[in-house]
Write a structure and sequence with these properties.
Radius of gyration: 21 Å
Helix content: under 10%
Bound molecules: beta-D-glucopyranose
Mean pLDDT: 93
Number of strands: 29
Largest sheet: 9 strands, antiparallel
Shape: globular
Number of helices: 2
Distance between the termini: 44 Å
Low-confidence stretches: 1-27
Length: 375
């Protein structure tokens, strides 16, 4: 063979191998779970990274620190895979710089006004970390602790069981709370998260998941062209510190209305500060129901979110300002969006909102399903 052809043939060979790794078209793949070291926390705890791969080649990378989804690879309409979640490069950045990228959030997702609430006649004072309010579990919430991990092969797909025991008084909350979160990457192309929690003293619980999605790819710019549908006729208006006023208002005729698919950016200028609101889901009887659907026109990727929760926080990445970088990208304003299934913010202080109280002998449960496809 003439030597001048060798480089050309090598490139062709590399491209072939590369595309077979990248595309799901190269035959059925085996599901797998791989474990590797990710790093250490400041106080010396080991953090592991688990890679879950389903039979279609979808891949979720999850670390034991905060139960964070650090990467999620899903195909577009041509079968091309991309990582669709924002993330950091190491444990230190997740601990110090990340605005809750990909994390499990608890004991209370979202805000509790002034970090105070009264339960059974006792006033509790929580850690405050968002001005004078409590946000996402406090200074050291469930996103900043190392969870115990147990990989599992289930008949639905590879799974990772994470457990954490939050002690009585942690961040000011009453009761020892035992929590389990199971991530399953199903062979139907769903990322499922099922939560359970039990307490030994009455407490409040509102767990959620905080991935920042960009269905064009985590490094593909802003999400304003994504088309969003929210299965919600009402939302909970907020004050200037994003604490609900207690009202439940219809979305009809306002820029909050996503009952039929609308580009996120089409009316965002009319919403002070951008979207950062809790929507009241139309289905709120605790059964698994469609809450949201998002379509990215350039790649055709679709994500549907199903939940058993009564609410969903739609956050349009308003506070991203280019100061957080990760995985080779710089994350600017609106480069990712969050859809956090939840009970309503500040519920412990709003008697007209569904209760978030968990008592001894009861079991908290929640199921979130992120279903991926392309069209
Ligand atoms: C909240 C935002 C907050 C963000 C933190 C979201 O869940 O709604 O107000 O800034 O989390 O990254």
């Amino acid at each position: 063979m003439k030597t001048k052809y060798v480089p050309i043939l090598s490139v062709v060979a590399i491209l072939f191998v590369f595309s077979c790794n990248e595309l799901a078209m190269c035959g059925e793949k085996k599901m797998s779970i791989k474990k590797q070291a990710f790093g250490k926390t400041e106080d010396g705890k080991n953090v592991d990274l688990y890679t879950l791969t389903n039979t279609n080649g979808l891949k979720a990378e999850i670390i034991t620190y905060g139960g964070i989804v650090t990467s999620l690879q899903v195909p577009d309409r041509n079968g091309k895979f991309a990582d669709i979640v924002l993330g950091c490069d190491n444990v230190n950045d997740y601990a110090k710089k990340s605005p809750y990228f990909g994390a499990l959030i608890g004991r209370y997702g979202n805000r509790i006004a002034k970090g105070k609430f009264t339960l059974d006649g006792v006033e509790y004072t929580l850690a405050t970390n968002d001005g004078q309010n409590h946000l996402h579990g406090g200074i050291k919430g469930f996103d900043k602790v190392v969870w115990n991990a147990e990989p599992m092969q289930t008949d639905k797909g590879p799974a990772l069981k994470l457990t954490y025991r939050s002690r009585d008084g942690e961040e000011g909350y009453p009761g020892n709370l035992s929590c389990t979160a199971i991530y399953t990457l199903t062979n139907n192309n769903e990322l499922k998260i099922s939560y359970e929690a039990e307490t030994d003293k009455a407490t409040v619980v509102n767990l959620t998941h905080h991935s920042y999605f960009n269905l064009g790819g985590h490094n593909s710019g802003d999400i304003l062209g994504h088309e969003l549908m929210l299965n919600a006729d009402h939302f909970t208006p907020v004050d200037k510190d994003l604490i609900p006023t207690g009202e439940i208002k219809p979305v009809k005729g306002t820029p909050m209305d996503f009952t039929s698919p609308m580009a996120i950016g089409s009316r965002i200028e009319q919403v002070q500060g951008g979207y950062d609101h809790n929507y009241v889901l139309n289905s709120s009887d605790g059964s698994l129901a469609l809450a949201a659907s998002v379509y990215e026109p350039k790649t055709g990727r679709v994500m549907e979110i199903y939940t058993t929760e009564p609410g969903i926080q739609f956050y349009s990445g308003n506070f991203l300002d280019g100061s957080v970088k990760g995985k080779g990208a710089v994350y600017n304003k609106h480069n990712g969006f969050c859809l956090e299934t939840q009970h309503f913010p500040d519920s412990p202080n709003k008697s007209n909102f569904p209760s978030v109280v968990l008592k001894p002998g009861e079991k908290y449960t929640q199921l979130i399903v992120h279903k991926f496809s392309a069209r």
